[in-house]
Amino acid sequence: MRFLSEKQVSNKLIGNHWKKIFKVLMLLTAIVIGFLGFWFASKIILNTEYPMLPVSSSNMCIFPSNCCSLMHPFEPTLHVGDLIIVQGVDSRDVNFSYPKSDILVFHSPKSDSYDSGSLTITRVVAKEEKSGIVYFRTKSDRLGANIGSEMPNASECEHWNDYRENYTLNGMISEKLLVGKVIFRIPWIGYIALFMQNSFGIFILVVLTILIILIAKFTISISANKKS
């Protein structure tokens, strides 16, 4: 019968532990690839470049204060921290029967060519077609005196301006900037996306990954010493 030396046993144990770490890393890689696959599949299925978005503003919340999904997650409004599901929509199919009209996501109009741009969530109030282009008059649910009840007047609506031609018209926003309509909201989950959007969130993720690898390596050393 052949016996292994202490060094061979230690090397074998270390090798087995590294195999386990490799399996964990492969699992993490598979999760990342799966998430990316899900994201790109969602873009195709929902026909929009942004199928999921976190809500970072309280403009669509009808509550005067504490507009976060932790306070009243199941009320019919959008809270900070919600994750919304967005579906691409033809501009002519948009429902503008206020106050049950569609909530839309747009690329925000740009003031100049240096404007990096952002996304905005708002409700359509009316629409108008001119020269083959559909324009939307919009109003965030939190704006105006009559929140979510009566048809708002023009002064209560948002007034959009873009330096590019045919992107805005008389305060209305063009279909050229339309991303899609909100079809569903998930409370709380948006906080994760909001956290990961800033540099601090990415830094925390990197630190946690390094800590996991260091802890795993430290565990290997202790286990190998005990066995030897």
Tell me the strand order in the biggest sheet: 1-2-8-3-4-5-7-6
Biggest β-sheet description: 8 strands, antiparallel
> Strand portion, in percent?
15-25%
Distance between the termini: 20 Å
Structural class of the helix and strand makeup? alpha+beta
Compute the number of structural domains. 2
Average of per-residue pLDDT values: 82
Uncertain runs with pLDDT below 50, 5 residues or more? none
Give the tally of β-strands: 8
Describe the structure.
The protein is an alpha+beta fold. The chain has 2 domains: 7-46 and 198-227, no CATH class; 52-193, no CATH class. 34% of the residues lie in helices and 20% in strands. The protein has 3 helices and 8 strands, in the order αββββββββαα. It has an 8-stranded antiparallel sheet with strand order 1-2-8-3-4-5-7-6. A hairpin with a 2-residue loop joins β4 (119-130) and β5. It is elongated.
In short:
With 228 residues, the chain is an alpha+beta fold. The chain has three helices and eight strands; from the N terminus they run αββββββββαα. Strands 1-2-8-3-4-5-7-6 form an eight-stranded antiparallel β-sheet.
Give the helix/strand layout.
Layout: H1 6-46, E1 52-54, E2 83-87, E3 103-107, E4 119-130, E5 133-139, E6 168-169, E7 172-174, E8 178-186, H2 190-197, H3 199-227
Antiparallel strand pairs: 1-2, 2-8, 3-4, 3-8, 4-5, 5-7, 6-7
Helix pairs in contact: 1-3
